Amino acid sequence: MNDLVIDARSLRKVYQMGEIQVNALAGVSITVRRGEMVSIMGPSGSGKSTLMNILGCLDRPTSGEYYLDGELASDLNDDQLASIRNRKVGFVFQSFNLLPRATALANVELPLRYAGMTSGRQERARQALVAVGLEDRIHHRPTELSGGQQQRVAIARALVNQPAILMADEPTGNLDSKSGKEIMELLLNLNQQGTTVIIVTHDPSVAAQTQRVIRLRDGQVEESA
Amino acid sequence: MNLGQSILEALESLAANKLRSGLTILGIVIGVAAVIAMLAVGTGAQDTILGSISGVGSNLLFVFSGNFTENVRNVQPLTVGDAQAIADPFQAPSVEAVAPILRSELEIAYGGEKTFTNVQGVTPEYAQVRNYAVTEGEFINSDHILGRSSVALVGPEVADKLFNRREGITGETIRIEGQPFRVIGVLESKGGSSFGSQDDVVLIPFSTAESRLIRRSRDRIDQLLVQAVSAEAVPQAAEEIAQILRTRHRTALGADDFTVFSQSDFVQTAQTITGVLTVFLGGIAAISLLVGGIGIMNIMLVSVTERTREIGLRKAIGARKRDILIQFLTESSLLSLFGGLVGIVFGWLIAFVVGQVASASGTPFTPKVGLDAILLATIFSTAVGLFFGLYPANRAASLQPVEALRYE
């Protein structure tokens, strides 16, 4: 049990859209072990974004139980969810989502600030940037960085709090193929060093590089190979 | 996140939109500047008025004939007899000294110089009551009164006009309405007051004035100044004077045909006026701060919408509701605090300029920017920012991370 970073049991998510109820997730049960690298695939509308939001503790399931790193995460209030996101989840987004006015270092420092850390933040943030190979871009702003470099900053930000899981939503979607490849290599590398990684993607070639693919269709897990 | 970081971050964010931030705080700047300037000018004016009132003398009561608040028919003038009755220590124990005055604008001449000046016939008590001193020579004494002497004391302004100097005038002879008067002294300068210049004056013995220069029927006098024995005795003295005059004027029933004013009455009147002014200014301030605050709220709402994705990202990496709330509240209160500070500087400048203009046009007074006004403006403008920032900040803090991240 403790080996499972993600343990989701029959997650359901129902959206009320006017009169109609939409079942975005219709009973999804998945588990991810520590150190695994898993991709979630599926066409649009399959519920993979919803699943990622719930697994990333951005949202709550309508019903079902979800344990993240041994903590029950399906029944928390907003601030408790914020705290668990801060401690246990690192996000990498398709559009990087960096603060444009802040330097790479300040961007990476941000989760540590919300964690309430008062001293040694800069050093931790610097180490995270070194780990993604950006030691010479520490004081650059996002506009002074290439897409690939921006995504590296985002990965450093996701890792700086040493989360239980790294959630990447189409991490290569906004990048040219060369940068995309480099980012995938970085993620694989991190996984080999022990980080649990979940990638949500459309791209079969990205999914092919992961150990396991979870396919979603109409809010249900299609196959788990 | 601690407050220091929030402030730094807010500063960065405000600096990123300098023009917008500047325009947003304009309302607050104008409001605060107006308040600071007007308060400074008001306080300065009040100080000047109060200074001149107390400069007239201490524990003074002014007795005028006539009633200032009601219509009274057959007003009897104040007379020498009234003055003597009030000076009686048995009838009016709270009265220290009484100074009856006759006054008129008369022509003064020396050599080829001529001027019209306020000539006052006074008794020796006048020096004590009005707190007058001489820079040279001596004051009018009882011998001058008894002898109806043709002697005069000149004020420094009159000395300037006639002699072009203020020393060595004693012993000279001036002519008042053609009659020769020997100068026995020069008055110390008292400066201007709201009652006109106190230096542009010539004092002569009361008896001389009465018999030769300022003839009044039936022992009439123009003004009566009374000094009370102490500040506490002023109301008591006023009551005693009123009793004596009612008996003498036979107006025990009905309205008085005289008015007793004390210095504190003048002070109170001045304070009432400035009080009204303050309320009025407070109204203006409230309105402009309200308008400024709405401006801030408007811009903060725009800012929240613009930064929806940023808010979503911050939430995704662990910002709690409170963190976002503090972030936006810090921004809005810093914004209006800046407005307040700039407004204080502006107001100060305006007050300074007004002071310069006033002294250039001959009414010297010093606008005072009090620490209380600065503190009030600072606290108030920050509070405005806090209050009007509350709604936008709360809106930002209540955003759901999923929707905020999806926002385009």
The CATH superfamily of chain A bears the name P-loop containing nucleotide triphosphate hydrolases
* Spatial extent as radius of gyration of chain A: 17 Å
Low-pLDDT regions of chain B = none
Number of domains of chain B: 2
How many strand units of chain A? 10
CATH topology of chain A: Rossmann fold
| Percent in helix of chain B | 55-70%
| Shape, principal axes of CA atoms of chain A | globular
**Rg from alpha-carbon coordinates of chain B:** 33 Å
- Strand adjacency order, main sheet of chain B: 2-3-8-5-7-6
Structural class of chain A: alpha/beta
Q: Could you state the order of secondary-structure elements of chain A as H and E? A: EEEHEEHEHHHEHEHEE
The level-1 CATH class of chain A? Alpha Beta
Low-confidence stretches of chain A: none
What profile does the largest beta sheet of chain B have? 6 strands, mixed, barrel
Question: What's the helical proportion of residues of chain A?
Answer: 25-40%
Q: What is the count of distinct domains of chain A?
A: 1
Summarize the structure.
The complex is a heterodimer of chains A (225) and B (408). Chain A is of the alpha/beta class and 225 residues long.
